[in-house]
Amino acid sequence: MLPISKKIGLCLSILHFLGFIFTVVIIYFSSDPQASLLWGIFAVIDFPISLVYFGARVYAKIVNSLGQTFFVQILYLPHIVHGLLGTIWWYFLPRLVSTKKYGGIWGKEKLNP
User: Fold this and answer.
1) Does pTM surpass 0.85?
2) Which residues lie below 8 Å from residue 2, measured CB to CB, with a gap of 6+?
């Protein structure tokens, strides 16, 4: 029996991942050159995780050293930030904001004498 916060986290992370996949499909099959601006929506949705973009310069140097391979396409920064880290963030978020009664981290535990 999973606590309610884990159930909610699982649902939110699945919805986030499906939204991510939908966005990737729209961006890659779009003929509009500004389609990649859709990542801005995820920058707001995944706010604290989106701060990883400030380390993009270091990340770009590492990825550019790999050359143009299929592996580099997978390591595209929005895929890592929003597809992986954002989904993990939405899995743990309900536990970070809920009380221990619902499976979170806040509140007092009942101590049995």
Assistant:
1) no
2) 10, 103
